[in-house]
């Protein structure tokens, strides 16, 4: 199933319970489509959410609202039924908003080009915490709810762990040679995988975040732009050469291409709420929806699997609460944009 968006999309998200998928476009538009297995997708919402590109999209409030983030420094909340703006924060970050991630029922996190991660509390209608943890733009984030840890990756080549219980940065990794672009938590919380600009996948053991315990080189030199956990031992990776691959982390250590975007860089991956479909977006301006069962069953027929080494060694030193000295490593893939307007943080979620 394919949806021609007519323009490049930077992010996508599926509704948490209905057959709706949202995409944020380079034009600043937010598109929402209704899909069904045996019919053509129908666009149900088109909104010019931002003056500049729409880089981040997330459904919140049980899918009643869509949040979007942009290089114009704003975060906008749009009502899914009416398409009307519910709230708009013009100065959410000092620079472009790159990522949005759901935390709990009443909190979300955003990441900006200035390297700052912010946590927003919808009940208090404000930013409840701000972590200025990275030197470069935030590329991806993921949340571990049991420990209340928010993990972020950055263009500065480092991984951060923010403790939302203590409201402080718990640790930060040493700087990698490459930008870290994507992140997932695997092996029932025991492993963290990061995709890099150089095509490596870095494996960290939980609690040992200072340095990676292993490095997979199967995708070199194609950047690993997107990672999506299929199960505790397999991850789906989207790379700059347009391939979507199934990767066995442990114990299989196998990589198998399962789909493609005609050599255009894959920007984002997401599952539908029932995990029936895998959604992918790319620079080819097409939102593709793949039947998961068919992809997995046919994965062995696409191409012979490629093995890679994995020593699974533990790190020598445990995390501390100290943050290593700042480094100039890492190059920005996205340009900063100056903030506009007044700071309206206090009333951002007033109507949610």
Strand-helix topology:
Elements lengths: L1 E3 L4 E6 L5 E6 L3 E8 L2 E10 L7 E5 L4 E5 L5 E5 L5 E5 L7 E8 L2 E6 L3 E6 L4 E7 L5 E7 L4 E6 L4 E5 L4 E5 L7 E7 L4 E6 L4 E5 L8 E3 L7 E6 L4 E6 L3 E6 L5 E7 L5 E6 L5 E6 L3 E6 H11 L3 E2 L45
Antiparallel strand pairs: 1-28, 2-3, 3-4, 4-5, 6-7, 7-8, 8-9, 10-11, 11-12, 12-13, 14-15, 15-16, 16-17, 18-19, 19-20, 20-21, 22-23, 23-24, 24-25, 25-29, 26-27, 27-28
Distance between the termini: 33 Å
The shape is globular
Measured as a percent range, the helix fraction is under 10%
Characterize the biggest β-sheet: 5 strands, antiparallel
Number of E-state strands? 29
Strand content: over 45%
Order of helices and strands: EEEEEEEEEEEEEEEEEEEEEEEEEEEEHE
- For the biggest β-sheet, the strand order reads 22-23-24-25-29
What is the averaged pLDDT score?
84
Contiguous runs where pLDDT drops below 50 for at least 5 residues: 301-332, 334-352
- Count every helix, treating DSSP H or I runs of 4 or more residues as helices: 1
Output the structural class: mainly beta
Q: Taking Cα atoms only, what radius of gyration do you get, to the nearest Å?
A: 19 Å
